[in-house]
Amino acid sequence: MSKFKVLLWKYYLYRVLIHIHFFSGVLVPFFTDWGGITFTQVMILQSWFMFWIFALEIPTGSVADYFGRKYSIALGCFAHALGCVIYVIAPQFLVFLIAEFLMALGMSLISGANEAFIYDSLVEIKEEHQSKKIFARAESFGLSGIMISAPIGSWMASLWGLQSTMFLTTFPTLLGGFIALSFKEPKLYTEQKEKKYFSILKEGTKYFLHHKILKVLAFDMILIQSVAYFMIWLYQPKLQSIYFNIVYFGLVHASFVLSQTVMMNYFEKLEKIFRSKKRLIFLTSFLTGCFFLLTGFTNMIVPTLLGIILGGGIGLSRRPILISYMNKHIPSHQRATILSCVSMMRTFMLVIINPFVGYLASQYLNTTFIVLGSFALLFSLASKVQEEHLLD
């Protein structure tokens, strides 16, 4: 087995471990039942989390470009694990704020560094044309961690309490960090390390802001991904509203993630079927909106489950392929910084929107699904992505 294949499988294992989130299938009950806070407060807490990701995104991306992607990834894992421990100290909002800050720091350190690390490793062996497949596969391994852990987490919650799901997530996350420390940095990256930190930060940000195609691709990815993100937070209140047993929440979450995984791994085949990359990008946006509308207009169990599983799954599946297209327009030594710029834009939008969606959902849950679905439909028709932007 080649050194790159060994590295790739270590990277896949790391992706599985950091996505073992035992709390994912009972996330809203964890906050509202054990934590004792309202759903509006849950979304305010997420705005706090997103604010710190926004504040830390570009600086931590530049940390990855300067000190090393593997060190940034490992430190991010350790910060996230500490956040899980802090979370279960006491069901108090102040404790939750501290834990969310640590998790935001961890995510910021990982964000951008992940894709930059693996893409430059592909460039080093002249296999960057495989980036779409590799990114989709890496995301699939990550999602498999959620698929495995979500149903187990629902079972854990019924036996040991909701807080056990957060605490036990600490251990696979720590192991993922130690595996990241064993990664070998690509030579293409290490040859750029003579550049100073603030130079990397300034140049990377400027490059993104002046690159029209990158901004168009980023905008398309961010808006639909943000709509789909709310399915993660809204589907559990929706299931509670139709008296769906909490024991099965983890299975619903696993199915949600499975649909996302299947979509990501069939993107290349679907591009050939539709004979147009742009057409597929449009269709995934449009269908996301349709399934959100379905979830909002029904309280029947089967259509609701269909809307949840496909609405969230299709919308969230788009990120790896759009990241792959964006990477074709980014120079190596600025990759983590620029990808962090993209994440920062999405984060800033969610900081603003989260409390409003939380309040609307607490009052009019079905209306919230309809509003989000309508927005996705309208944007799919207005997107400025062109076929020539989507390079292999």
In short:
The protein is mostly helical.
Structure description:
The chain is an all-alpha fold. The chain has a single domain, classed as MFS general substrate transporter like domains (Growth Hormone, Chain: A, Up-down Bundle), CATH 1.20.1250.20. Helix content is 81%, strand content 0%. The protein has 19 helices and no strands. Mean pLDDT is 87; it is low at 190-194.
Secondary structure elements and pairings:
Elements: H1 3-18, H2 27-34, H3 39-67, H4 69-87, H5 93-110, H6 113-124, H7 131-160, H8 162-168, H9 170-181, H10 187-190, H11 197-209, H12 212-241, H13 249-265, H14 267-274, H15 277-297, H16 301-317, H17 319-327, H18 335-363, H19 365-382
Helix pairs in contact: 1-7, 1-9, 3-4, 3-5, 3-11, 3-18, 4-5, 4-6, 4-9, 6-18, 7-8, 7-13, 7-17, 11-18, 12-15, 12-16, 12-17, 12-18, 12-19, 13-16, 15-16, 15-19, 18-19
**Which secondary-structure class do the elements indicate?**
mainly alpha
What is the rounded distance between the termini? 26 Å
CATH class: Mainly Alpha
Shape descriptor: globular
